[in-house]
Amino acid sequence: MAIRIFITGGTFDKEYNELNGSLFFKDTHLPEMLTLGRSRVPVDVRTLMMIDSLEMTDTDRETIALNCLKTSEDKIVITHGTDTMVETARVIAEKVRGKTIVLVGAMVPYKFGSSDGLFNLGSALAFVQTLPPGVYITMNGRYFNWDNVRKNKKIGEFEKIK
Amino acid sequence: MAIRIFITGGTFDKEYNELNGSLFFKDTHLPEMLTLGRSRVPVDVRTLMMIDSLEMTDTDRETIALNCLKTSEDKIVITHGTDTMVETARVIAEKVRGKTIVLVGAMVPYKFGSSDGLFNLGSALAFVQTLPPGVYITMNGRYFNWDNVRKNKKIGEFEKIK
Amino acid sequence: MAIRIFITGGTFDKEYNELNGSLFFKDTHLPEMLTLGRSRVPVDVRTLMMIDSLEMTDTDRETIALNCLKTSEDKIVITHGTDTMVETARVIAEKVRGKTIVLVGAMVPYKFGSSDGLFNLGSALAFVQTLPPGVYITMNGRYFNWDNVRKNKKIGEFEKIK
Amino acid sequence: MAIRIFITGGTFDKEYNELNGSLFFKDTHLPEMLTLGRSRVPVDVRTLMMIDSLEMTDTDRETIALNCLKTSEDKIVITHGTDTMVETARVIAEKVRGKTIVLVGAMVPYKFGSSDGLFNLGSALAFVQTLPPGVYITMNGRYFNWDNVRKNKKIGEFEKIK
Q1: Which of A11, A59, B40, C66 has the most CB atoms at less than 10 Å from its CB?
Q2: C113 has a pLDDT exceeding 90
Q3: Phi, psi (5° rounding) for residue C156?
Q4: Contact between chains at C107 and A18 (C-beta distance less than 8 A)
């Protein structure tokens, strides 16, 4: 069965608006990234929203959790801004059982030269294929259980709480 | 415990010689790639050789297998040219038991714009952390058991034999 | 005699701060860009300031003009934000005579994948070597006299006024 | 009047064939490069051939010179492999008078990360707009008269003969 990929926005998909120097969202780069990675993993990509995770509301998180619940696939990758990734993981974990759900983001937009996005996507797709059911954050080449991870905002890395 | 990474060369690490237009090996780009991926996975990188896998000899494969056997780590990633990756996997599988060993390569050099290298490295590092002991090829976002994979040279992708 | 390059900041040199998602200035990328372009033009690079051209004050423009006046070279390239490039060109033109002075910028930061910076730098260095004394804007592969150019902010391109 | 751009191949346009690891020619990247550079210079691009300049025959050079002669534009940029660029410039100089003709190449293919191609194209387009009639080589940010330049193959740079 295919892996479901839900797009929610985040740094991953930000682009540079050359007319005013701001960062904005247009379309997701996920299909382009999968092509670049020569991925042959069957996936089904759907965009749920395209927002900065700092602007994500409770309703948005409910929507994401609901989509995880309703989709027929039991392996799900969610692209998400890193700032509130852990909160969304918690909401999902409360509602969804029996599926392997991996949240992944990027510290630098994919379209910028120094992005970690492609590396992160490669690891997220691998983790979702191999980890047992549960909700995980995958960043920095590692995976974390949803209830034992935080973003260290000073250094921009994820780490275990205990 | 750290993950051991053995470098053997392959397309991954090829560079363009601008003086004569040929492709050649200098140093491995693995540390640079891990930095780009913001990887925080503890790794220990050692270069065993820097060759095109079409030029790899039986002795070279024995050397690789021997290093897998002797190193104290039980999780090992090997960067390798894709053309004979499956042969090397077989030699290792015959000699090494009880370790998770993942061979990974790239279709396009990391230094070229269209490389799959970073994606592949991300997935290899994830697979080696989660797969049970055994010898695997990881390419195209997927993993294959060493004895059930071949490179389809017409399309440049790995596929199951049966 | 060498060509003098003055750095003032602008989009050219902006970088992405992965800790807070903002754009900021660190060091200039000019030397790196000249190396990438295999430039063998003798140049002398000096950073005068590192600012967004929307924040450039009258005093800043005086400083730039003064440096153009005082430097011994008579061929000068100035990297500058595109938003107020034309204003700075006017201040320089009022104060400096007998030198070929070329202002150049970029619509997208050099470090981002889609930057026009390297193309613009190549053309600016060529124009400064071949144009007669005067103050020019060089963007979009073209050169403009300082008193006959404006930035069309709707499309992000420079165009002649008449 | 538009600038005529003739494509002849060379490193500029080489691509990496991921199926066999060789370098080859497909289509020219010139239009893509002009878009990246946000060029607004009116140009008319025509591909004359797509070959490595080491394989260029006398007939090929005659063809290029003939096209320069017959085209209505008097400003011409020719993309060309660097190895025999000087020979082609000589053949053109013998046949064509009264036009500004600039030959330009690259040391590294445009599609590879470390290419000088975009920088070189920017400078070639600027030089062709500003230099008096004649045949020139433009590389390394500089321009050379066709009869006073050679490629120093040891260091991969162009230099004056005397």
Answers
A1: A11
A2: no
A3: 70, 35
A4: yes
Residue A92 carries which side chain, given as an amino acid letter? Answer: I
Residue-level pLDDT at C1: 82
**Residue found under tokens 């980890």:** A131
Residues of D in contact with B21 (CB under 8 A): 11, 14, 23, 52
Residue A87 to residues A80, A107, C159, Cα–Cα distance (Å): 11, 17, 49
Chain B residue set in contact with A, beta carbons under 8 Å: 33-34, 36-41, 107, 114-116, 118-127, 129-131, 138-143, 156-158
First-last CA distance in chain C: 35
Would you call D24 helix, strand, or coil by DSSP?
strand
Here the tokens at position D72 are 């209505």
Which of B12, B13, B16 has the most D C-beta neighbours within 10 Å, making it the best mutation to test the interface with D?
B16
> φ and ψ at B154, to 5 degrees?
-70, -35
Query: B94, B147, B156, B74: which is closest to B120 by C-alpha?
Result: B156
Please choose, from the candidates D63, D122, D71, D129, the residue with its C-alpha nearest in 3D space to the C-alpha of residue D100. Answer: D129
Mapping DSSP to helix (H, G, I), strand (E, B) and coil, where does residue D91 land? helix
Query: What's the gap in Å between the CA of B50 and the closest CA on chain A?
Result: 23
CB within 8 Å: D21 and B19: no
A140:B33 CB<8 A: no
* pTM of the complete model beyond 0.90: yes
Say whether D122 and C126 touch across the interface (CB within 8 A).
Answer: yes
The whole-number pLDDT of residue D24 equals 94
Structure tokens at A105: 């983001």
Residues in contact with A65: Cβ distance below 8 Å, sequence separation at least 6, in sequence order: A91, A92, A94, A95, A96
Task: Please tell me the number of Cα atoms within 13 Å of C13 on its side-chain side.
Answer: 24
Distance from CA of D128 to the nearest CA of C (A): 10
d(CA B157, CA C120): 39
Residue C89 pLDDT level (bands cut at 50, 70, 90): very high
Q: Which residues of chain A have pLDDT under 50?
A: none
**Residues in chain B with pLDDT values less than 50:** none
Chain B residues within 8 A of A158 when measuring between CB atoms: 40
Q: CA–CA distance from B107 to each of B151, B157, C61 (Å)?
A: 11, 9, 51
Identify the pLDDT of residue D113: 85
- Cα dihedral across residues D79, D33, C7, C16: positive or negative: negative
Does the interface predicted TM-score (ipTM) exceed 0.90? yes
| CB atoms closer than 10 angstroms to residue A48 | 17
Give the minimum alpha-carbon distance from A99 to chain C in angstroms, rounded to a whole number.
31
Question: What's the gap in Å between the CA of C59 and the closest CA on chain D?
Answer: 31
